[in-house]
Amino acid sequence: MKCLGYTWIRTKVKIIAMNENVALRSALDKNLKSAVTTAFLMLPESFSEEDLFIEIAGLSYSGDFRMVVGEDKTKVLNIVKPNIAHFRELYDSTLQENPQVVYKVQQGRLEIDKSPEGQFTQLMTLPKTLQQQINHIMDPPGKNRDVEETLLQVAHDPDCGEVVRQGLSAIVRPSSMKQSTKGIFTAGMKKTVIYSSLKLHKMWKGWLRKTS
């Protein structure tokens, strides 16, 4: 009986672990698809794997004022270049299963549907927070259009990708400002000035490498 009890407990633990793994996997898949869709909207019709992965890796830095003042702007490139194979493995199934993209694996190239219909489909699958932010940017005061109507307008806009980038920046920027302000008060003004000077020096060296 004890053996049966132990087996039941062990089985229950396995089932819980499996359920947690399924939930985590589902959440990860959703995040991967959202990242890919967001990047698609900000890229041209044809692009390389590296272009895609740089865009995806840069999503969390979009609008981050620390990347304008202080952070080395080659940081995203430095993340992606040594890890292309890992990015490819992570996003392979998401790209292969997406009906809107032609993924030429051997050439490392992709082509995405940039028609208004294609872009509207992509916009409609963005995270709700980003959709609402885009609506806030595009909706004139007093008009109060619903999100779907705004996204349809954006899908026909030649600057669709830039609108998405602005929406993303508006989400990221407050967080980066808050973290940086918190750093000033926790580290002390003198340490912050020294740290910022080092960051600016690092960014300057990055620019020199890029222009040389």
Give structural notes.
This protein is mostly helical and 212 residues long. 70% of the residues lie in helices and 5% in strands. It has helices at residues 2-42, 49-57, 75-80, 84-96, 116-124, 128-138, 147-155, 160-187, 189-211, and strands at residues 46-48, 101-104, 109-112. Helix 5 (116-124) packs antiparallel against helix 7 (147-155), helix 6 crosses helix 7 (147-155) and helix 8 runs antiparallel to helix 9 (189-211). Residues 1-18, 63-70, 176-190 and 192-201 have low confidence and may be disordered.
Describe the protein's topology.
Layout (H helix, E strand, L loop, with lengths): L1 H41 L3 E3 H9 L17 H6 L3 H13 L4 E4 L4 E4 L3 H9 L3 H11 L8 H9 L4 H28 L1 H23 L1
Antiparallel strand pairs: 1-3, 2-3
Helix pairs in contact: 1-4, 1-8, 5-7, 6-7, 6-8, 8-9
Name the beta content range: 5-15%
Q: Distance N terminus to C terminus? A: 76 Å
Record the strand order, biggest sheet: 1-3-2
Radius of gyration: 22 Å
Helix content estimate: over 70%
Uncertain runs with pLDDT below 50, 5 residues or more? Answer: 1-18, 63-70, 176-190, 192-201
The biggest sheet amounts to: 3 strands, antiparallel
- Look at the structure and give the mean pLDDT: 75
Total helices: the number is 9
As an assembly, this protein is single chain
**Global shape:** globular
Alpha-beta classification: mainly alpha
Question: How many strands?
Answer: 3
Instruction: Give the ordered list of helices and strands.
Output: HEHHHEEHHHHH
